[in-house]
Structures are given as structure tokens and as C-alpha cells.
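Bumping my old thread because nobody answered last time. Still need a sequence for this structure:
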């Protein structure tokens, strides 16, 4: 892992409901190149809003977002794309009626070979031969769609990938595989940063950094080793008492 900052967020504020609901109240955080960041915090504390602001899905009222030192806060999605600034955001596969291969090619943004597409499917534990020409429709189970979603994230050639509670609804698929995908991703793409909202201890265990959000503010952030013991109440300072 290198140590330069890929994304820097300064004093981000975001409100809803005509300013009555303050979802983010001055969030400041750094994401380093190649690191795995896990964002935790109570339900409704602003975690998804934070990631959606990073991804331009929400527009903050105040604050700045820098990518590689460049202020991208007010760039349009097109301008960001032209500057090579894009994130892979895990989202429901919406293009019904097209095939799994098509959707992987759309994600990759280039003519992905069938064998490359198959490799992404294998990475998420789907037998490529069975799935590559399947149509995206109601015949796919929730677990299969979830894995296809994750394969589209893998197929995108980007520096930052973002997952919002990826463990939700994967009952049909072993959670172990999800962890393995994150570990493989970290090994295979050393300069790719992975940002995950998750409360799963197994996912927290692969974090380089943990960001704790509460009531729209970052209450703690730092190395997993420093943050987690305190959160679990097993801080050595506590134990010493
Ligand atoms: P978390 O992901 O930590 O559960 P969210 O970021 O989804 O929290 O939400 C933070 C707060 O902002 C919550 O009070 C939520 O109801 C509110 N909120 C989020 N998105 C919207 C929206 N599009 N419109 C109105 N309120 C929203
Ligand atoms: Mg959320």
C-alpha cells in the first residue's frame, strides 16, 4: 500500500428536507491510495449520504471533495469522466432484458473479451459458462444478482470502488466468498482503494482504516488497530482500569 491521498473530503455538509435535516455536519476524511476503508456508525448517521456525495449522487451544500489533489466538488459527472475520475459504486443491476455479458461490457466501458468477462464471473463464484449469456430478468435469484453487481464493480477500471452494506441480502451466498473477493481485489489491484460501509466484524477485520460516523459527523477515524479495541470496549486503557 502506498501512502498518498486519493480522496480528501473537507468539511462536507448535506441537508435534506429544506435544510431541516442535517445528514452531514462537516465531515472531513482522507482515503489513501490502495487502502481498504470501512465506514461504520448507527443507522441514519449519514454513512450512505457520505458515500453518495463522494459519488456525485448527492450534491453537498458545503465543503470540498478533492481527487488526487484536484477539487472535483462542482464538476459534472461528464467532466469527472473526462478527467478520468470515476468510482465503481455497487448498485442494483437495472438493465433488464440484456445479458450478463452486455452488462459487464457496459461496466468495463470497452470491448471486454468473453474470457475477461468470464474471469470476473468466476471471481464472484458464478460458473461463467452458465451465466455469461443469461438475460438479466426475474429468473435470476437475489444472490445471483448480487454477485453480478459485484462482478460489474470488478470490471470497471477505476481507482476507487465503493460498497454500501454489500453483505445485505446475500443469504444465498456464503459470506466467506465476499471477504475473499475483497481480499483478492486488494491483492490484484494494489493502487485501488476500497470503501465499504459495513458492520460485519469479518469485513472490519480486513480494514486498513475505520471511519466512525455518528449524527452526521466523523467521531473517530484511524487504523483499525487503534479504533476497534476502543469501540469494542477492550481498549488497553480500559483494561488497565
Ligand atoms: P445511514 O446510511 O448511516 O443509515 P443515511 O446517510 O442513509 O444514513 O441517512 C442519513 C439521514 O439522512 C437520515 O436521517 C435519512 O433519513 C436522511 N436521508 C437520507 N437520504 C435522504 C433523502 N434522499 N431525502 C431525505 N432524507 C434523507
Ligand atoms: Mg445506509
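Sorry it took so long. Here it is:
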Amino acid at each position: 500500500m502506498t501512502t498518498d491521498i486519493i480522496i480528501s473530503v473537507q468539511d462536507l455538509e448535506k441537508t435534506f428536507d429544506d435544510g431541516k435535516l442535517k445528514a452531514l455536519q462537516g465531515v472531513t476524511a482522507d482515503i489513501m491510495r490502495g487502502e481498504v476503508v470501512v465506514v461504520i456508525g448507527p443507522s441514519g448517521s449519514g454513512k450512505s449520504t457520505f458515500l453518495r456525495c463522494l459519488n456525485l449522487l448527492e450534491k453537498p451544500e458545503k465543503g470540498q471533495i478533492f481527487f488526487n489533489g484536484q477539487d472535483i466538488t462542482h464538476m459534472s459527472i461528464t467532466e469527472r469522466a473526462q478527467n478520468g475520475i470515476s468510482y465503481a459504486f455497487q448498485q442494483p443491476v437495472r438493465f433488464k432484458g440484456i445479458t450478463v455479458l452486455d452488462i459487464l461490457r457496459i461496466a468495463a466501458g470497452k470491448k471486454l473479451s468473453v474470457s475477461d468477462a468470464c474471469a470476473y464471473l468466476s471471481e464472484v463464484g458464478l460458473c461463467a459458462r452458465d451465466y455469461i449469456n443469461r438475460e438479466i430478468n426475474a429468473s435470476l435469484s437475489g444472490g445471483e444478482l448480487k454477485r453480478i453487481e459485484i462482478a460489474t464493480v470488478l470490471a470497471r477500471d477505476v481507482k476507487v470502488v465503493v460498497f454500501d452494506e454489500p453483505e445485505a441480502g446475500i443469504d444465498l451466498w456464503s459470506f466467506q466468498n465476499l471477504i475473499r473477493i475483497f481480499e483478492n481485489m486488494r491483492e490484484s489491484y494494489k493502487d485501488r482503494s476500497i470503501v465499504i460501509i459495513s458492520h460485519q466484524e469479518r469485513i472490519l477485520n480486513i480494514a486498513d482504516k475505520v471511519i466512525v460516523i455518528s449524527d452526521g459527523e466523523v467521531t473517530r477515524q484511524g487504523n483499525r488497530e487503534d479504533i476497534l479495541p476502543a469501540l469494542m470496549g477492550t481498549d488497553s486503557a480500559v483494561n488497565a482500569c
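The CA atoms of residues 123 and 180 lie 9 Å apart. Let me know if any region looks off to you.
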